[in-house]
Amino acid sequence: MDRQIQKKFWNTQRIAMISGGALLTIFLVWQFAFADKRSKLNVEKDKLTVSTVTQGDFDEFIVVTGVVLPLKTIRLDAIVGGYVKEKVVDGGNMVKQGQVILKLENQNLKLSFLQSETEASRLVNDLQNTRQRLKVEKFTIRQTINDLDYQIDQAKDLYDRNKKLNNDKVIAESEFLKSKRDYEKLMKQREITFESSKYQEENATMQIKQLEGTLERTQKNVQLWRETLENLVVKAPVGGLLSSIDVEVGSNINQGQNIGQIDDLNGFKMRVDIDEHYISRIFAGLGGSFEFNGKDYALEITKIYPEVRNGRFQVDMIFSKGVPEGIKRGQSSPIRLELGKATKAILLPVGGFFSDTGGNWVYVLDKSGKKASKRKITLGRKNPEYFEVLEGLQVGEQVITSSYENFGENEVLSF
């Protein structure tokens, strides 16, 4: 008789099935609860720039470009107009103070000078004639008064005698009255003549003063025309390099026209272009430096040009501690322009990541160095070398600072 064999519940097949199901369940639970679901991207670490976050002095500066110019540049402007008769010195040559550079010709100026000189000569003659006439009139008046005094003496003697005789009833009263009237008439005539001579003298004196004033002004005018004619010869106001002269023989020059410039080579300065973004932070006395022949030279802002062109403005900087030897006009060089004093800060090197993230986040490597994850950060000030880190990074952490252009929206980078 066959015996029924009872099957075991925990057989090998069932155990295998239950174990597989349990493992699958655990895997699924881990995937949903614990697995890293962030998007990932495999990249080659060798092609990335990885920088270490450090702590140090944050120097707030910008790098600008300066051009070497003479400390002083004297413009040559035509004081008078004319055509170029002779060009004595060409551009690019050294000139001494007072050296003739150009000779101009202007016939109208010469004619005006001659007319003014002729007028001055006429006034001199008029003044001499007036003075001579005044002397003659003085002699004439003196002679007239002298004659009147003589006649008055005679009339007075006659009047005195007739008065005495009239009192004695020796002569007729009419004869006495006639001698009296003759005497009084001569006295009044003398008084009138004296007043007339005084008036004539005052009038002549006034005419002389007027002529002297007119002559003085005319002579000044003659001197002015003479100096104007002298300006037809253009001379170097200072010694230096005649860096340019933009005229040729036979060309016509207008009054006030710029014809060239002279560079004073006794000193140099730097003319610097700066972005208008910094205009409120730039002031006279602000320092900077630049490298020339392996040495650093200190610079200082002395003048700010307020006009903004194409988003930039200019400043002049002088060498505060000596001019570099061998520097030439027109050379350009990068300048480190300080905007503030150095302060302690957490520093992150500048890189291409900023254009992709705006400085709001970065990829930070983990301790193993095999993975980098996104992290939000806050950056502060910036100079050409470093960003100032305000939040999100610690000293010693490593950050990818090269461009993120090819990383897309992935949150984790694997190496």
Question: Quick summary of this structure?
Answer:
InterPro entries: MdtA-like_C, RND_pump_MFP, UPF0194_transport. By secondary structure, the protein is of the alpha+beta class.
Which key features would you list for this structure?
UPF0194_transport, alpha+beta, single chain, coiled coil, 6-stranded mixed β-sheet, Efflux transporter, RND family, MFP subunit, MdtA-like_C, 35% helix, 415 residues
Describe the structure.
This protein has 415 residues and is an alpha+beta fold. 35% of the residues lie in helices and 34% in strands. It has four helices and 22 strands. The strands form four sheets. It has a six-stranded mixed β-sheet, with no helix packed on it. Residues 345-403 form the Multidrug resistance protein MdtA-like C-terminal permuted SH3 domain. Its main location: other. Belongs to the membrane fusion protein (MFP) (TC 8.A.1) family.
Low-confidence stretches: none
Number of helices: 4
Average pLDDT works out at 84
Strand order of the largest sheet: 1-22-18-17-21-2
Q: State the assembly state of the protein chains.
A: single chain
Count of individual beta strands: 22
Termini gap: 72 Å
- The general outline is rod-shaped
Q: Which bin fits the share of residues in helices?
A: 25-40%
Largest sheet: 6 strands, mixed
The H-and-E topology, N to C, reads as: HEEEEEEEHHEEEEEEEEEHEEEEEE
Spatial extent as radius of gyration: 53 Å
The secondary structure category is alpha+beta
Strand content: 25-35%
Domain Multidrug resistance protein MdtA-like C-terminal permuted SH3: 345-403
Family: Belongs to the membrane fusion protein (MFP) (TC 8.A.1) family.
Subcellular location: Cell envelope
Keywords: Coiled coil
